[in-house]
Amino acid sequence: MVRTELVKRSPLRLMEKSMHGGVGKGNIGILVSKKGIGKTACLVHIATDKLLQDKHVIHVSYSSRTDHIISWYEDIFKEIARKRNLESAMTVHDEIIKKRVIMNFSQEGTKTEQVLTSLRSMIRDGNFKAEAIVIDGFDFKKGGNDDLEQIKAFAVELDLEIWISTSMEQEELKTDKNGVPKGMQPYIDNFCILVNLVPEREFIRLQLVKDHGTIPNEDLHIKLDPKTLLIAE
Amino acid sequence: MSYDISKMRNIGISAHIDSGKTTLTERILFYAQKIHAIHEVRGKDGVGATMDSMELERERGITIASASTNVTWNNHEINIIDTPGHVDFTIEVERALRVLDGAVLVLCSVGGVQSQSITVDRQLKRYNVPRLAFINKCDRVGANPFKVKNQLVEKLDLNAVLLQLPIGLEDKFEGLIDLVTMKAYYFEGAAGEQIREDEIPEDMRGEAEEKREELLDAASMFSDELAEAYLEGEATEEMIYDAVRRGTLERQMVPVLLGSAYKNKGVQTLLDAVVRYLPEPREVHNYALDLDKDEEQVELVSDFQEKTVALAFKLEEGQYGQLTYLRIYQGTVKKGSELYNVRSRKRFKVGRLIRMHADTMADINEAYAGDIVALFGIDCASGDTFCDPSLNYSLTSMYVPKPVISLALYPKDKKASDNMSKALARFTKEDPTFRTYVDEESNQTIIQGMGELHLEVYIERMKREYRAEVETGMPQVAYRETITSRADFNYTHKKQTGGAGQFGRVAGYIEPFHEGDYEFVDETKGGVIPREYIPACDAGFKKGMEKGALIGFPIVGVRVVVNDGSTHAVDSSEMAFQAAAFGAFREVYKKAGPILLEPIMKVSVDGPNEFQGNIYAGLNQRRGVIVSSNEDGSFSQVEAEVPLSEMFGYSTVLRSMTQGKAEFTMEFLKYGKVPQSIAEELIQEIRKKNEKSS
Questions:
Q1: What φ, ψ does residue A93 adopt, rounded to 5°?
Q2: Residues of B with CB under 8 A from a CB of A
C-alpha cells in the first residue's frame, strides 16, 4: 500500500467521522483512562497518522528519558507498516521522523507556563512548523482549568490541534449519568473532545464521551488491539 | 616492587569535560605521596596539573593525551590512565578503555549526567568495564548528589547505589558518612590529608539508617550470605564489601562515592573503594586471536610464567625519544629480552623499561602480567601486539571509525615541509583516526580526522613540537556519492591498433545496495566470461567506484550484477576485462540516478533554558533536525542531527550566543542525502575549482 492510501484507510478516519472531522485546529482533545491501558500508544498512533499526512508534530512528555518515547514511535510505525504492507517503508520512515520533535520535561511539576514557553520557542525560534501537539501524561491534579485555558489560548494563537492524555484513578473514572468520568467533570467546558479508554475483556474500547458541543457518550466502534496497541476497527 | 597480582589495579578516570577529572587525578597522586604540592588545572602558579603533560593541554585546560601513571595505595599498585574528555578525541578514550580493568566515572554534582557522560558510559559498556561513580564538586553552589545519583539510574540505566552520605552541601560541605562502617569522616589538615573518624551527627542518624538499608537491599542481591545475615541483623562490614564487590564486577551495580577533589574531601575514601571494589587483572577476561589457527580466539592468562602477550596502546614523543605504553596481558617483559611485533613481523629487543609517573619515570628491570609500563625507542604503531617470538597472537582489532573531515596543508617553506612530514608520520602512528595522504592531482598534503577540533589540535602540535609552520585550506567534508535506481549496462572494450588487441564485453546491471559499500555478483552462465577474468571485472568496477562523476568523491552503496558478456580467443585479457568493467561503470553510473551523500553528525547541546530559543534557532539555521529536547529544571539538553558541513565554527557561535554557558558534543551518525539545491551548488563549485586548476 502506498502512503496516501494508508492515510485514507486509517481507522482514525472513522474516528474523525464520528467526531465531526476530529479535534480541529485551535482545539483540545483528551484521552482518559486508568494507568497502563495504552494511552501513550494511542497518542503515538494519532501523532504518526499526522506525520504520515506530512504534518509536523511535537510530542510533549514528562518522563525521565526520551529514548523510550522514540522506541514507541519506532514500534507503532513498524506495526502500521507491516499490517498495511507499506511501500518503501524505510524511506517513508526517514521522511516522517524529520517532522517530529520530542520535548521532554523531566523535572517533576514543570509548570504549564514553562512548557508553553519552550513549545513557542521550538515553533518560532526553531522554525518548526508544528500543526499538532500531543501531550502525554498531563496531570489534572497539578494543573486544572487555569492550565487548560492557557493551553487552549496557545492552540488558538498558533493554530494547533492538541491532544492530551491523562491518567485517573478507578474512583475518578466512575461516570455520571451522561457518561462523563467524575474526575473530568470540573474541566468539561475547556476542551472539545473527550475519549474514554474502557477496558473490556479482550480489548480496549474507545468511547466518545464529549464531541464538540454535545455529550453523545457513544461507542466509537474502534478498539485498541491488546497485542500491538494499535487503534483498529 | 614485589609482584602480587591480586594487589594490582588498572583504572581509568572517565568524565565529562570540566567535571574536575584532572584535579581529582592530581589529588590522588598527592595523597599517594608521589608529588608534593597540588597544582590546579588552571593554576595560579603556572605549573599546571601533573597529568596534563602537553603544553597545549595546559593552555586549553583540557586533557588530550592519556598518560598512564602508577601510584601505591594501601599496599596496592594502581595504574591510572587519564582519559581525554572531549568527544573529538574519543579514539583515545576507547584505546585507553581497552587496557583498563575498571573505571571511575566522575560526575559534577551540579551538572550531573551530561551528554559527554552518556558517551563515556556507552564506551565503558561496550568494553564491559566495571565502574564506580564519583560525584565531585559537592562544595559547589547547587550541588545535589542525590539528583545526580538518580540520573545515573534513569539516564544511564545503572544500578547506582550510594555508599556515602554528604555531611552538609555547597559551602557547608564538611565530610562524609560511610554507610558501611556507619561512621562520619572529616578531612582535616592543610590539604585534607588527615582523616578524622567520628560518630554520625545526631540529626543525620535517621537518614543514614535509611540509606544504609537501601545499600544493604541492593547488595543482598549479590550474596546469599549477606541476605541471610541482614535479615537476622548480623551483616558484617566484610560481607557488605564482598557483596558490593561482586555486584560491581558483574557490572550489575555501580557504587556511588562523593566528595570534592578541589576541597580535598573524599579522595582517600575513593581510593579505598578503588582498591576494594574494582577488579584485579585476573578477574577480567582478555582474549587474543591466534593468527596461526585462522584467528581462533584464545583466552589469555594473567600469569607471569606464561608466554608474553602485550598491547602497545599509546605512543608518545618524549624528551628522549619515542615512548610506547604497554599493557602486559600475559607473561613477563624483561629488559634485554626479545619480543615479536605481530603486525610488522619483526623481532626486537627490549631496551629501557620504564614505570611512568606523569612527567617523571623510573627505570625497572622487568614487569609482569597485568601491569602497565612503557618502553623506550621501539618502532611500532599504536595498537600493535607484542608477543613471545614463539607465539603469533593478535589482540582483537580495536574499533576505528572512518574520518569525516579533511584539510589541505601548505607548509611555508622547505624546512617547514620537512618538519611537517616528521610530525605527520608521528601523529598517524599515535592516532589511527588521524590520517594523511598526498592528493595525486593537486599534490597537496591532506590530513583527515574526526572533527574540526581534532585536526586543529594536531596543527597546533605541529607548530609547537615540530616547528612546522603550515597554513591550512578550508576544512573539507568527506562527501560520498551513491545511486538511487537500477540501471543496465552492456559495454564492449575493444582496441585494435597494431600488435595484440584488447577485447572484453560485460553486461548486467547496477542497483542500490544498503547493507554495505559494495557488492559484486557474478551471474554469468556458460563461461561467456572466462572464470579467470571475473576478478578483473570486480577490480574494474571497484576502480570505477573510487571517484564519482558528480564531484569526484568515492561511491558507496552499489551492487553490481554481471550476467552476460563475451570474449575473444586472442585479444581478451585481464586488463581488457578490467577496462571493460571500468568503462561500463562510468557509463551506467550516470543513468542510475546518482546523488550526493554527506556525513550527518549527532549533535547534543547542553545549556541553560534561557538560551534554548537561540540553540533551536542555531541548529535550524544549520539544516539541523531537532530530534528531542529534554528540560530538567533550568537546564536543557537538545539532541539534533546536523550535517557536518554546517557545523564549522559552531563552537564559537554557540559560545557567543549563550555567553559561554552552553556546550556541545558531536559524533558521526550516518551518511545522509544532500538536498538537491545544495548538491547543485556543490557540483558547480567543485567543477569551477577543477576548471581553474586544469
A1: -55, -50
A2: 154-155, 609, 612-614, 616-617, 619-620, 625-633, 636, 639
